[in-house]
Amino acid sequence: MKFMKLGSRPDTFYTAEAVRSVSSEVSSDLIIQVKGSRYLLHKFPLLSKCLRLQRLCSESPESSQHQIVQLPDFPGGIEAFELCAKFCYGITITLSAYNIVAARCAAEYLQMTEDVEKGNLIYKLEVFLNSCVLNGWKDSIVTLQSTKAFPLWSEDIGITSRCIEAIASKVLTQPSKIGLSHSQSRRVRDDVSCNGAESQRHKPASKLWWAEDMAELGIDLYWRTMVAIKSNGKVASNLIGDALKIYAARWLPNISRPRNANNEEASDSDSDSENETNSKHRLLLESIVSLLPADKGAVSCSFLLKLLKAANILNASSSSKMELARRVGLQLEEATVNDLLIPSFSNANDTLYDVNLVMTILEQFKLQGQSPPTSPPRSKLGFERRRSRSAENIDMEFQESRRSSSASHSSKLKVAKVVDGYLQQIASDVNLPLSKFIALAESIPDFARHDHDDLYRAIDIYLKAHPELTKSERKRLCRTLDCKKLSVEACMHAAQNELLPLRVVVQVLFFEQARAAMAGGKVTELPRNIKALLASHDIDPSRSTAALSTTTSIAAEDQWSVSGLKSPKSKLSTLRMKLAEDDLEEHDLQSNGTGRASKFKAIRALPTRPRRMFSKLLSINRSAGEKN
């Protein structure tokens, strides 16, 4: 920390009966009142350096002994006034980054300029500020922080803008060249004079050495400083993102659900205090969002989603939410299921999580550019080869194109896993509309799901949480499910799941047998319950098994298994009852027989064993219908 001393006389100010005075052989003739404090001083040293005091004394009438001057709006208070008064008396004063702003504003107020006297206080303060304070990192930070107490005066004098420029220019400088950082100076005292040298040498720090020091600034000063740093264009965007993350961790607490969202009553004073705090946090968050670098990947997807959660809780502006949603969509493959569980505070619905916001994020993800072609354009293989390009360059571009396409495909696979896991988490919400669940499930293209086990798990959880669904709604829900992509364990559960529509149960049995037939007999043994169920339909139960995939942990009551299920015979009777109750013929086969003929044409085109199995199921359906 650098400092400057002015004056040589000892301090002779003293306090007597609540009045500050100075020891002198000359009697005092001036009373100055500064914010409730009274000073008994002398006109000569003060008026000779302070133009404002000259004007005030000339305008006010003189009393018999003392002339009184009121300074009610003095910047910096009594401490700053006393510094200026001691300078006028030649008493030694010490200036540093901690008090130079207050002294400079006070000197400006008193008009201690060169027009009054050469070498006046303003001139000396400006020399010290420009040549010493603004040349040091920690001094610049402290000085900028101290301008917060005098925002208008600091702006008019230009101290704020000069500090910001000094800090922005030093961000790219090695810390060893500008002295200790402000945070380190709390632990190591390193006071040097203006003309002195640094007392210690320090090891080189990381490129983000400046972020923690700047995190001490208020949001208004921080925002202006970061804008200046970004305008230089020399700081990497990922460093800007890391600095914003440090600042958010410093000033944004773990924001929780507001009291009124939990229907908790609060007093008027508590409510006002909470609203004021939320307003400050909202301003801080929106300012951070406005500072986010434009480059993709400059900040992590997890950090963006944390900001989005906070924006939802604080009821931030819609533009800030949309900007965060857009940025999350650009790198959604990095997200986890927990990241997407954004609490909902909308009055329009009572869902636990903001599904609309996640759907917006998915839309932004799908709006990204199409994957590059997997083969090089014809022009590159033809016309450009005839020019100066070599075949090696074309092959290199082709490989790069394929790598880019592969990365895009990989990201879609990751997003599909995350969305299916998200569906499992929100499916148990009794207030979640069926349309939103289906819209989320259908937002993922079919090729992005290698298997449908996680989707089936989510559908099963939703059916358990919404027993009031009609038969048609259950059919709509299961349309997104591809039975061909279910593992053996999932098929075992689905075939005996009474919550599923009959169509799905039939499809599960049908496609399992079709795959077994196509395997050419080279299959392993199925569990006994499924083998018995298939054998009752004259189906060879031999078939390979696969493991069930999972992406997220589910509560025990939501997990499905095949242990403890009913016996094959009782399950077969349940299947027959469901076949009799279902209106398969009414909805799937047209009354004029056209639909029936087309269905049987499709069946005849199938392999022998699946066709026999499906015909068996239809005959069961007809016989059950005739009995009723």
TrEMBL record:
Q: What pathway does the UniProt record associate with this protein?
A: Protein modification; protein ubiquitination
Q: Where is the composition biased (Acidic residues)?
A: 265-275
User: Which BP terms in the Gene Ontology apply to this protein?
Assistant: protein ubiquitination
Query: Membrane-spanning residues where?
Result: none
Q: Does the keyword Manganese apply?
A: no
Task: Extract the ranges annotated as region (Disordered).
Answer: 258-278, 368-389
Q: Domain NPH3, which positions?
A: 208-515
Q: Which UniProt keywords apply?
A: Ubl conjugation pathway
Q: Does the keyword Transcription apply?
A: no
Q: Which PANTHER family match?
A: OS12G0117600 PROTEIN (PTHR32370)
Q: Which family does it belong to?
A: Belongs to the NPH3 family.
Q: What is this protein called?
A: NPH3 domain-containing protein
Per the UniProt record, the source organism is: Manihot esculenta
